[in-house]
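Write out the 3D structure for:
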Amino acid sequence: MPTEVLRTAKKMWEAGLVTGSAGNVSRRIDAERIAITPSGVAYDVLTAEQIVIVDVAGGESESGVPSYELPMHLAIYRSHPEIAAIVHTHAPYVTTLSILRTPLPPFIDEMVVHLGGAIPVADYAFTGTDAVGTNVLRTLGDRAGVLLANHGNVCVGRTLAHALNAALVMESCARVYVQALTIGTPVELPSDAIAAGRKLFETRYRS
């Protein structure tokens, strides 16, 4: 499991979703433990040995210092047993929308298929606090992620591949949306397309 977290973290960094040691990645090991990226270690030098194992119930780490955003990860895992992986990014276009506190509407089919629909903005809370997790849980619903006000986004999935894919799709859609806003008014998908996309989302990512 630490190797899978490491591999996903490096892919996140290589894709430009984060810089330095920003953002974080975690994965359930079993019902009691998760593996999570450490605090303050740049992804280009991160090793599998530095991935931190944390007890979900108590939040204690077996070794090392876990990501500063551990409280958010624990809140999600404790409330959503079906979620097995989390990716938190500071991707440029996602973060642009987050500082504008502008939701990402469903305007491309793939957004509904991979993310579950419109992506709302969770209320702001200072990084690393329990309130970040509380606000995410209040907003997430049955989607694959949310924007974090003035912070970026968080994406979830049944696997790390699902969570990372959601983060990549959300950033791609955010980029198109921001670009479209400079030209005119983006048109949202019709309701029947959203319903069809939701069925595919539920089949692929929620079943």
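The first strand starts at residue 24 and ends at 28.
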